[in-house]
Every structure is written in structure tokens, then in C-alpha cells.
Amino acid sequence: MRRAPVIAALSALAFALPAVAETWTPYTEPTDKGLQWSFDRDYSYRDAASGRIVVMTAIGKVGATPRMGPSAPGAADGVGFVYALDCKARNLIPMGSYSPKKPLEIASGWRGEAAKKADGSDDAALMRQVCSAEGAYPTK
């Protein structure tokens, strides 16, 4: 009988924890090998201190299961980057990267790093896709 309150408490805790959703949105065309870059809309947010939009990107194979990685922010089962974008200045600051051999680590001083111009077709596509919904991201 003592187990019932414990089971009830654990069940309530399980339902109270937030779910980690992932909405991977492609921003490049697939390559001839079927690879495509996407960003996670659910991870994306506006950084309150800098005003930049923080996005996690990943490369995935179209038609593969699972299609994208990582399975959670920082999980070491995908390949990608985290950037802080300035939509008005059209530049970005690399914050970190991850791969199956290297878990995601966000540089603590990223806000003080020099921004680089968003050049190249992939950077331009990311800026276009993310910045088209600039007002939709929560501020954190």
C-alpha cells in the first residue's frame, strides 16, 4: 500500500517535466547525395542580452530515419552548429558545434566574439529562413 503514493508522485513528476520537441526546418536544397541542412525551430530563441536569434543547425539525409540529429540539444548523435544571428546586420557568431565524437559546448564568452558576415549560399539561406520569422522567437 505504501507504493501507491510513491507511484502516484513519480507519475505526476513524469507528466510535469517539459517535453523536448523538435521541428527541423530545411533551409538548403538537398545535395546530389541527399544531404540537407536544417534548423530546429523549437530550440531557436532571441537572446535577451544581445538581441540575436540563437539557432541550432544540423545536417541530415533526406529520406533517412532518423532524418535529423541531434535527438536533443547537445546530444552526440548528429552533426551541426549553434549560431547567434543578427538579422539586421546580416552577420552571425558561431557559438558551438557538435558531432557524435564531440558533444555540444556553447562558448561562455560568445557574446564578446567578433561576428562574421553571413556569406555563402548556406549562410544566406539560413539568414533568409530564420529572419523571415524574426518576431516569432521567444526571448530568453
SSE layout and pairings?
Blueprint: H1 3-16, E1 24-26, E2 35-40, E3 45-46, E4 53-61, E5 80-86, E6 91-98, E7 116-117, H2 121-131
Antiparallel strand pairs: 1-2, 2-4, 3-4, 4-5, 5-6, 6-7
Organism: Phenylobacterium parvum
Protein name: Secreted protein
Signal peptide: 1-21
Explain this structure to me?
There is one protein chain. By secondary structure, the protein is an alpha+beta fold. 18% of the residues lie in helices and 26% in strands. Strands 1, 2, 3, 4, 5, 6 and 7 form a seven-stranded antiparallel sheet that branches. The termini are far apart. Keywords: Signal. This is Secreted protein.
Strand content: 25-35%
Q: By helix and strand content, what is the structural category?
A: alpha+beta
Can you summarize the main beta sheet? 7 strands, antiparallel
State mean pLDDT (0 to 100 scale).
82
- Terminal CA distance reads 44 Å
User: How much helical structure, as a percent, in the residues?
Assistant: 10-25%
Rg measurement, Å:
18 Å
Instruction: Figure out the total of helices.
Output: 2
- Structural domain count: 1
Q: Based on CA inertia axes, which overall geometry fits?
A: globular
Write down how many β-strands occur, each being a DSSP E stretch of 2 or more residues: 7
List the helices and strands in order: HEEEEEEEH
Low-confidence stretches: 3-19
Protein name: Secreted protein
Organism: Phenylobacterium parvum
Keywords: Signal
